[in-house]
Design a protein that fits this description.
The chain is an alpha/beta fold. It has two domains: 31-169 and 290-317, Rossmann fold, CATH 3.40.50.2300; 173-287 and 321-347, Response regulator (Rossmann fold, 3-Layer(aba) Sandwich). Helices cover 38% and strands 18% of the residues. The protein has twelve helices and 14 strands. The protein has helices spanning 2-20, 67-81, 100-112, 123-133, 173-183, 199-213, 230-238, 250-254, 256-265, 275-279, 290-305, 327-332, and strands at 41-43, 56-62, 89-95, 117-121, 140-143, 164-168, 189-195, 218-224, 243-245, 270-271, 284-287, 316-317, 322-326, 345-347. Strands 1-3-2-4-5-6-12 form a seven-stranded mixed β-sheet, sandwiched between helices. A four-stranded parallel β-sheet has the order 8-7-9-10, with helices on both faces.
Length: 351
Amino acid sequence: MRKILKVLAAALAVSAMAFSFGGCGNNTGSGGESSQPNNSSSNSNSSDDSTSGDKLKIGVVQFAAHPSLDNCYNGIVKGLEESEYAGKYTIDLQNGQESTEACDAAAKKMVAANYDMIFAIATPAAVSTYAAAKDNDIPVIFCAVSDPVEAGLTESFDAGFENCVGTSDVLELDKQVDLIKSMQPDVKRLGVLYTTTEANSISQLRKLKEICSGVGIDVVEQGVSGSADIPQAAADLASKVDAINNFTDNNVVSNLSVLLEKANEANVPVYGSEVEQVKNGCMASISIDYVELGRKTAQMGVEVMNGKKCSEMSVQKISEGTPVVNTEVMERFSIELPDSFSNAEKVTTND
C-alpha cells in the first residue's frame, strides 16, 4: 500500500500545482495504459516515462480470448478509468489461450515482479493466480468465476480470503429453464456439453439437474477434457436431446461454432448464457452483462487499493440477467417468442 499512497500523494501535489498556476498550460487527460484483450501476450508501458516508476503495476491474467472474457477485460479497464487511479497505473495483460500452464506461468511472473494487484478473468486463471499469490500480500481480484467456493478461491460468498475476492458470473438457471420451457413446451431431454476439469461447470451442472428434475426435464450430460473432444461429443449429444443448454464453460464457449454446427445438423436449438453467444447463433439466453461484471470487479479492486481488506468484502454478482433472443434462429426452428418474454432484447446473428 506504500506505493498506492505515494501515487495518491503525487496526484494531489500535481493537482495543487495546476491550481496555483491558474490554468496557464494545456490540460491533457491521461488514462492507464492497457493491452488489447485478444492478444496472447502483451505488455503495456506508461506514455510518460518520467513517472512510470510511480505508477501502479496491475496485472491481468485472462484464461482465453472469446467475447465474454474480452468484455470482462474491457469492463475492468472501464472501471479503473472511472476511478481516482485513472492515469496512475499500467496494465500487463496476459492471455492464457485456454492453457492453465500458461496462466500458471503468467501469474508466477507477475508475483515475482511484485505487481501491486492482479485481476484474474475466469475460473482457471483465478485458480492459477491465487495459487501463485496466496503466500504474499498481492491482492488477487477474480472476475467471472461462477462458483469461487467450489474453485477454492473463498470459503463462502459472504467474504473473501485474506488477499483474494472478486465477482461471480453465476447463472440464473431457474430463469433459464423457464425460458427454455416457454420456447419449447414439449422439451423432455436437455443436453449439456461441459469440461470435466472446470469447477464452475460441474457446480452449474449439479444445480441445473436439481431445477430440471422438478419440471420434468431429463438432463443429458456429455463431458469433454479439451477442444479436440468437442466435435464428436457435440454430435453425439445433439442426437439424443431436444435442446442444448450452454454454460459459461470457457472451453465450450471458445468452440461454440463447433457446437452450433453439430446442433444445427441435428436440428436442435442451443441456448446460451449471455448475449454474445446469442449473437453468434444460440437461440436465446438469460444474459449476463460481462462488461458490467468487469466494471464491478474493478470497483472492488479500487476498494482494496484504498485499504479495504479482501476478507471484509463479499463476492459480488450481477443482480439480474436480461432475456435475449436471436430472431433469425427462432425463425429457422419455427419458434415464436412467448408473451412472457415479449420484453426480451432481440438480436440477429453477428449483429
